[in-house]
Amino acid sequence: QKNLDLLAIERKWRERWKQLKNRPKNQENKQKFYILAMFPYPSGMLHMGHVRVYTISDTISRFRKMLGHEVIHPMGWDAFGLPAENAAIEHGIHPVDWTVSNIKAMKMQMEKILTDFDWDRELSTCNSDYYKWTQYLFLKLYKNGLAYQKEAVVNWDPIDQTVLANEQVDGEGRSWRSGAKVELRKLKQWFFKITDFAEPLLKDLDKLNEWPDRVKQMQRYWIGKSEGAEFDFIVNLNRKYRETTFLIKVFTSRPDTIFGVRYLAISTDHALVSKDERKKKIHQRYLLLSISLLNNINLFFNLKYLLIGINTGLYATHPITGATIPIYVASYVVSDYGTGAVMGVPAHDQRDWNFTKANRIVDEKDIRRVVKPYSAKFIEECEVYTSYGILTSDCGQYAGMSSENAINAIVNDAEKRGYGRSAVQYRLRDWLISRQRYWGAPIPMIHCSRCNVVPVPESELPVILPTNISLTGRGGSPLKYVKDWLNTKCPKCHGPAERDTDTMDTFVDSSWYFMRYTDPNNILLPFSHDKASKYLPIDVYVGGVEHAILHLLYSRFFTKFLYKLGMYKPIHNNTQGRDEPFRQLVTQGMVHAKTFKDPLTGRFLKPEEVDLSNPNEPIQKSTRLAPEISFEKMSKSKYNGIDPEITIEKYGADATRLHMLYKAPVSEILEWEDSSIVGMQRWILRVWRLVESIANFPRQSDDLILNMSMMSNEEKETYRLINFTIKELTTIFYDTYSFNTAVSYLIKLTNHLTSISPNVNMSRPVYIYGVKCLVKMMAPMAPSLGEEFWEVLNKGRGTRTIFEESWPKVDNKGLSVEEVTCVVQINGKMRFSLQVPSSILKDNLMVEMLIRKSNNGQKWIEENQTGKKIKRVIHANGGKIVNFVFEN
Ligand code: ANZ
Ligand code: ZN
To answer: Which residues form the Methionyl/Valyl/Leucyl/Isoleucyl-tRNA synthetase anticodon-binding domain (predicted)?
Structure first.
């Protein structure tokens, strides 16, 4: 019996794979299978989360290769972004050098975890042969009216000196990266008009039936469709300004509450209060002053949700009742949602109620409810009623209608008379892509004093990111200071002009990388129509749920746009349609690790502060108390980080991968524990014993004769278990990816084969078949061991790797269990009969258990005979008659 040197085996196969990679591959007539793991940011170090996601994609990829598919399993680098720039600022390393060396290190680590990526498709978003095409796609968006510039209030990170997307600001108004309190500033910015695609982005979610519901729900919420109506309120102006009419349009999701309007509220930069000269006449000076005050308060405290209001002193006319309605400027009205104006209905909206009270707009007695609950029981005057109901007698001709009917009637009448119309709003905003940063793809635009904004001609792409740069981290866009890059000629008038100094949000880079993988070396186009059409959509996309909203939404947007442009058209029309990028989405859970806390102070303990000499009873060294133990997200501050490289060197990559897959279902949190890797090592060793036992057999012809009619009952049972395992694993690898269950099934098969191995002479063909299937089925998860075992099992069979062997097939005949009728007697009297698998007929205890568990068994043996003990059980006629004899 030889022991296994796991690390030596890994090394051997990593080398061997490199040599084998260069062989020509015949991919003709094969079904394509595109499996993708989200590409990493090249931070320089793989963490356990990476190991988990690549283990999953690699396992699926290797399985598909064994099915004989043409598998695309690429890898690349999301290489632009802030950390490279911050490293440059802090340590003086150029972002290029930092990124290149990080990529090199991570690539090595990826090889160490035995991944089988298509390195010939590798790409890096910071290379000009990639970002050239990012810029090209920007121009395509621009020419199709989907990229535009506008002045916008943006989130400004005072530490990183850059604009942040809303999504990069957390609930407390802090930057997701620097943690700085975010300020609001106004800047001219580039946007992508993703809102043009709001409806298809929403509607097509219904077709993504292989996506987790949770992710689809998050996207639905993000898009936030709201149906309602717009109403026009005419502002009552002084006699002096009669010649101008001024309308305030409001958007409401509750047209049925229009009779309850008590005020209008407009945002601070609503057209009515804008500084535009013509409109300036219509309001007093103090109003502007107060609004700028309000804006400053907003800027300063970021208090978008405070109930500050300013009475404009102006009034509008209610379009139905003709009542006079006061107009307020309100901090809670968002300027870029709906129309930037709200009809305030204090009786039916909590915010409106609070605003009314805070600003004493009307007396409480004048806040009358116009919609009452369907059942009168719940009426209580002072409480805000926000549900649908029946319209009250205050609602004119609509009194007595249900909310649903009233909404239709009111909106219909409004459309007829012209003061309103039905309207749809989305919460989704256009995508702000400008970043005042160096390390990103330059926006290919030129600013000319005569021609305004001019796109860089496609033939002049890429706009190369200059490398002669000094990064200080201060003062906005670093590209502003590279004069010989900044100053250029206007493509239109050839006069002096300046380049746009913003770079693109790195989410732009990652919105189309999966398309580039289909044709990574194309120098004429981002990708060829044919190749993209052949390989898209991605069959399985694996990644973290933290990308559930933005990255996936942006990628869907790009895909829909490029499809609309006609840049590709998938050959395979799946249920999700042709313009969706990802057929199946797998979101893997996080990896958590053990932490120790001082039970008295709650402080996290460093590893050296804990005595682990008895691993089951850790002790805090200083206090000799048992520390509090919990599993938490790995982090420096919790001292629970685990370096995958160290783990791999200690336990081997195969065992580490198996552990990753076995410890938790793919989408759930995985609690990392070294002790369970040891369990995987023990299993590996047991499989090795089986492999060895066969290697020791004298060589015999390779085609095993698996003739069921010649099998004994025991052999049939072994054969059944083998087929059962193949069936279950095939479903798992195809579809459900519950690899934890897959490992359990393989362990069960191992146990069974081990139990019959001592007297295997009789059942050699089935046994050998079982071991071979076992090795094949573990190979995608533990690839170097799979190869090694396969080589031992097939000495001298040439250079095929196990991944060129075919995945085992289920023999359906072998699956079915042969059954015999077993007659059950109680005290010698025949009572019932039962079908049992013939293979277990001789296993008396097993048969007894089956009988007792059956319905009749419950009735005759377990219940009816309570109090009486079974004296003995007699098995007769080769086990086909079982007699239960009870005490008197
Ligand atoms: C009157 C009303 C009565 C409203 C009522 C609600 C309940 P969703 O569903 O998110 O679309 N609103 C409209 N524009 C706004 C803006 N720019 N800033 C802040 N609030 C705004 O919300 C639509 C509702 O939000 C609208 O319907 C409006 O208040 C408010 F019983 O109009 B409602
Ligand atoms: Zn010009």
So the answer is: 721-840
Q: What's the mean per-residue pLDDT of the chain?
A: 88
Does residue 422 share a domain with residue 280?
Answer: yes
Q: How many residues does the chain have?
A: 888
- State the distance from the centre of ligand 1 to the C-alpha of 290, rounded, in angstroms: 24
Number of domains making up the chain: 6
Q: Which residues contact 524 (CB under 8 A, 6 or more apart)?
A: none
Q: Are residues 690 and 559 in the same domain?
A: no
State pLDDT tens for residues 716-758. Answer: 889 999 999 999 999 999 999 999 999 999 999 999 999 987 7
Distance between CA atoms of residues 854 and 872, nearest Å? 19
Q: Tokens 């050098």, residue? A: 97
What residues are paired with 192 via a beta bridge?
A: 147, 431
Smallest CA separation from ligand 1 atom 26, residue: 252
For residue 434, the CA-to-ligand 1 centroid distance in Å is 30
Same domain, residue pair 678 and 806 = yes
Check residues 637 and 386 and name the one with the higher pLDDT.
Answer: 386
pLDDT category at 304 given cuts 50, 70, 90 is very low
In this structure, is residue 18 part of a structural domain? no
Which residues hold their Cβ within 5 A of ligand 2, which is an ion?
A: 448, 450-451, 490, 492-493
Q: Tell which one of 153, 225, 334, 349 to mutate to probe ligand 1, the residue whose CB is within 8 A of the most ligand atoms.
A: 349
Among 153, 223, 248, 251, name the best residue to mutate to test ligand 1's pocket (greatest count of ligand atoms within 8 A of Cβ): 251
**166 shares its domain with 233:** no
Q: Which domain holds residue 406?
A: 225-426
Q: What is the CATH number of the domain that holds 389?
A: 3.90.740.10
596 and 583 both lie in a single domain: no
Q: What is the pLDDT of residue 92?
A: 86
**Percent of the chain, pLDDT > 90?**
59
Question: What is the Å distance from ligand 1's center to 250 Cα?
Answer: 9
Which of the listed residues 254, 298, 372 should we mutate to test ligand 1's pocket, taking the one with most ligand atoms within 8 A of CB?
254
Q: Which of 354-368, 549-563, 775-789 has the lowest mean pLDDT?
A: 354-368
Q: How many CA atoms lie within 13 A of 877 on its CB side?
A: 10
CATH number at residue 547: 3.40.50.620
| Full DSSP string of 239-306 | GGGTT---EEEEEES-GGGGGG--EEEE-TT-GGGS--HHHHTTS-HHHHHHHHHHHHHHHHH--TTS
Last residue of some domain: 473, 503, 533? 503
Given phi > 0 = left and psi -120 to 50 = alpha, else beta, which region is 92?
left
Q: Which band of pLDDT confidence, cut at 50, 70 and 90, is reported for residue 376?
A: low
What residue ranges line ligand 1, CB within 6 angstroms? Answer: 226, 251-254, 257, 332-334, 337-338, 340, 342-343, 345, 348-349, 386, 425
The residue nearest atom 28 of ligand 1, judged by CA position, is: 252
Average confidence (pLDDT) over 607-627: 87
HSE toward the beta carbon, residue 521, CA cutoff 13 A: 3
Same domain for 596 and 578, yes or no, is no
Last residue of a domain, one of 527, 556, 588: 588
Query: Residue 259 corresponds to which tokens in the numbers above?
Result: 């009779």
State whether residue 132 is helix, strand or coil: helix
Indicate if 262 and 150 belong to the same structural domain: no
Give residue-wise pLDDT tens across range 814-860.
887 777 889 999 999 999 999 887 777 778 888 888 898 888 888 88
Rounded distance from Cα 140 to ligand 2 centre (Å): 21
Q: How far is CA 143 from the centre of its chain?
A: 31
Assigned domain for 325 exists: yes
Do residue 283 and residue 361 come from a single domain? Answer: yes
Tokens of 809: 């097939």
Using 50, 70 and 90 to split pLDDT, how confident is the model at 212? very high
Q: For residue 611, what are its two tokens?
A: 């005595």
The residue contributing the CA closest to ligand 1 atom 33 is 252
